[in-house]
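Ticket #4471: structure export looks truncated?
Reporter: QA, pipeline team
Priority: medium

Steps to reproduce: submit the single chain below to the structure queue and open the exported record.
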Amino acid sequence: AVRRCKKDDLKRIARATGAALVASLSNLEGEESFEAAFLGSAEEVAQNRICDDELIIIKGTKAKPAASIILRGANDIYVDEMDRSVHDSLCAVKRVIESKSVVPGGGCVEAALSIYLENFATSLGSREQLAIAEFAQAMRVIPKTLVVNAAKDSSELVAKLRAFHNASQTIEAKKQFKWIGLDLENGKCRDNKEAGVLEPAMSKIKSLKFATEAAITILRIDDMIKIYQPSKEDPNSYANAVREGRL
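Actual output as written to the record:
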């Protein structure tokens, strides 16, 4: 038997083994009873010692497959960093499964959007052209920031990346350049689809939507009113005493 098990852990075990959580053994007549249907099943339940902790290991669950990731490190700081990295990776996989589509990473999407919007802006003859051109310029900030964080030449790499995507959108024979993104380890551009540098399409779409909505919200603010709290002067201060002739 296991005592003092967390409620979240109990729910996970119940889902994996097909068991049912029982809050009380009392029935409607006030007597204690238990039905076999409440039980779950697993191939093996064992208690293993890992580092300084005693863990209950449940293997071969019948209802649903389940897995636990055990992180080990030199100290708590390393383990916490590993925990964050694993959590981010699992969230990315979750987003891919939910959206069922991926896009190439490394600034590929932003560079392609920047080129497309710049060409689209020149086709408009109204003031909307200025807004679209500014949005296209904002798209260039992301690949530029990626290059700067990698301590590379942002002007040269971003210019090469934009040249590839411009060719992919204007020249039919160079359409394969639409997969070109940044290779920050080697400081060059490459086919990120072949390299396996991919991002969930859902995350990319949501980040662009939220950033656009935030910018629109800020632009709607045309005035700002500041109310300053009146200062409270001490009547017994040195300046007031001199002013009143008490000194």
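Status: closed, not a bug. The export was complete when the record was re-opened. Leaving a note from the reviewer for reference: The chain has a mean pLDDT of 85.
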